[in-house]
Design a protein that fits this description.
With 372 residues, the protein is of the alpha/beta class. It has helices at residues 9-13, 78-90, 109-117, 138-148, 162-169, 175-187, 208-219, 247-255, 321-326, 331-344, 349-355, 367-370, and strands at residues 15-16, 41-45, 95-99, 128-133, 152-156, 193-199, 223-229, 260-262, 273-277, 283-287, 300-303, 308-310, 318-320. Strand 12 (308-310) and strand 13 (318-320) form a beta hairpin. The protein is built from twelve helices and 13 strands. It has a 13-stranded mixed β-sheet with strand order 1-13-12-11-2-3-4-5-6-7-10-9-8. The protein binds S-adenosylmethionine and iron/sulfur cluster (2 copies). One iron/sulfur cluster is lined by residues 289, 294-295, 298, 300, 312-314, 347-350.
């Protein structure tokens, strides 16, 4: 008790400078990692700052007034982000997700969305361009994001009850303002909107059924509520297995209210297991990274706010792509370096945790820094 947990500024600094391979042949979009997994999804953290202090992500005791967020010149510029994204697209990425921190705290984000929306896959298709937000600033920005070409939105909301929600965001932010953000987004034509609820046993699990009822009744198929198992990301959130409510238990509680049936995954590597209400009132999702690891199909890479590539959410060491960007390397060189890093990737943290075979003493980077 009482000992201050130091956040991982040291891990933020821990990165290698990727080697440029001698073979610079152009990518064919078919790259696979060491476990045969393709590269399809890039998550981009656009800021490490946030106006919430969710205890499971940025606990107040750690991310306080003394915590040093990244200086502005450390952040990748919009042009740098777009350049990296374009190189990833050549390797087969078809989905980009903007995240953070709270991405809507990055000024003029709609400008970045506009640049990313102009990217095309090698066969000329637009990308699936999406954003995860806590919803606090969404009512203000929804229309501009839509106009800039954002295809989809995920809003995080952990409870409908104000006391529970304010305790979880730990800055006293009211539920009504997040709900207003979701309403504004639906009114702008976004849909179906995903709503992410992190479930912590004993904290907000009594909100599961009220949340499901609210989104069913108000939006039907235009909103998809997804229940996320509380994960042991980072090292500061005090994670304990007994606070994880398994998705199977969430499903049991929902099924007691409304009959549900399973649906096929929408895309290979999809993180959520999908279930639909039998009465046609839409669907729900379960992200069960603790009780049902899904590393086998994991096709996601993450780009930190300062341009480090992480090949697993639970990684401890990034690969400094910003160094390559800012030291005059050509597109072909950076593309080849990304390809070589992906080809070596063997991460399967959640499976190893489930099997009890995690290497001892591994430290993990914080989630607000590499994005969820
Ligand atoms: N600030 C934005 C938000 O909250 O939506 C985007 C960044 S946040 C890191 C991305 C997602 O990660 C959110 O849906 C959040 O609830 C989830 N998340 C953060 N910490 C988590 C944890 N320990 N376990 C499970 N999900 C977590
Ligand atoms: Fe902020 Fe999102 Fe983390 Fe909550 S989950 S502290 S809103 S980055
Ligand atoms: Fe992917 Fe790592 Fe999560 Fe496994 S633990 S699903 S490899 S991000």
């Amino acid at each position: 008790m009482g000992e201050k947990v130091i956040a991982l500024s040291d891990l933020r600094a821990s990165a290698d400078i990727p080697e440029i391979p001698s073979d610079l042949s152009p990518p064919n979009g078919l790259i696979a990692d060491a476990l045969g997994r393709p590269l399809r999804d890039l998550r981009i953290s656009v800021t490490d700052k946030c106006n919430f202090r969710c205890s499971y992500c940025m606990p107040k005791e750690v991310f306080d007034r003394d915590y040093r967020f990244l200086p502005q010149d450390a952040l990748l510029s919009f042009e740098e982000i777009t350049r990296v994204a374009r190189l990833f697209v050549q390797h087969g990425v078809v989905k980009l997700r903007l995240t953070g921190g709270e991405p809507l705290m990055r000024k003029h984000l709609d400008e970045l969305v506009r640049q990313l929306a102009a990217l095309r896959t090698p066969d000329g298709q637009a990308l699936d361009l999406t954003l995860t937000t806590n919803g606090s600033l969404l009512a203000r920005h929804a229309q501009a994001l839509r106009d800039a070409g954002l295809s989809r939105l995920t809003v995080s909301l952990d409870a409908l009850d104000d006391t529970v929600f304010q305790r979880m965001n730990d800055v006293g932010f009211p539920v009504a303002d997040v709900l207003a953000g979701i309403d504004a987004a639906v009114a702008c034509g976004f849909g179906p909107i995903k709503v992410n609820m992190v479930v912590k046993r004993g904290t907000n699990d009594h909100e599961i059924v009220p949340m499901a009822r609210h989104f069913r009744d108000r939006y039907g198929p235009r909103a998809v509520l997804r229940f996320i198992e509380f994960m042991d990301v980072g090292t500061t959130n005090g994670w304990r297995m007994d606070e994880v409510l398994p998705s199977s238990e969430v499903l049991r509680r929902l099924s007691a209210e409304w009959p549900l049936h399973p649906l096929q995954a929408a895309a290979p590597g999809e993180t959520a297991e999908r279930w639909a209400y039998d009465d046609g009132a839409g669907e729900v999702g379960f992200i069960s990274s603790v009780t049902q690891a899904f590393c086998r199909d994991c096709n996601r890479a993450r780009l930190s706010t300062e341009g480090k590539l992480f090949t697993c959410l639970f990684g401890s060491r990034g690969h400094d792509l910003r160094h390559l960007l800012r030291h005059g390397h050509r597109d072909e060189e950076i593309t080849a370096a990304i390809g070589a890093l992906w080809a070596r990737r063997a991460d399967r943290y959640s499976e190893q945790r489930a099997a009890g075979t995690l290497p001892a003493g591994e430290r993990r980077v914080e989630m607000h820094y590499i994005g969820g």
